[in-house]
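Data card: per-record layout.
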Amino acid sequence: MKLIAIKGKATDKRDRLEYIRRDGTRSTIEMPRQGILPHDLVHCVVENGFGLHDGFMGRVAGGASPQFTDSADLEHTRDLKIAESIVEAMQTQLACGAFDYDAFMYGVETACASRHVTDVSSLDQVAAQDAFDRAVLLNEQWRAVPPLNSFELIFEEAGSDNGLDLAHR
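The structure for this 169-residue chain is written out next.
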């Protein structure tokens, strides 16, 4: 699935993310500016990096609306809960500006527990560090995008090769 991240005006409080599925259907969501990489772009990095094909991005690639919330879908889908928890923990690491694996895993476990997922195994430390490094790089690239410009990402769906792929426009 192709993602097009579009920066708004410098004074805007939100940017946009357009999802273009393999079948050509499209969805768009607003991304609040947070001072770090937007939440939905962190999803792309994390889900590609850990091979989570049934998380948020996988659901959207399969046709779900990106506007769904933590309600029904998140209540019944373990992979979606885990993906959301990992993204939240990764955002915390990004906000800190350095990666601490133990703090990251504590964040994942705490967020999972709040979603009633208690049997989460440890995530590979090398994959976690790699995901953090990719998120830092993507954040730098995103911050360099001028207002009213965009860049493209690829979310690798189940059965696809590779991972995060960037193309600036």
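Known properties of this structure: The radius of gyration is 15 Å. The mean pLDDT is 87.

See the next section for split statistics.
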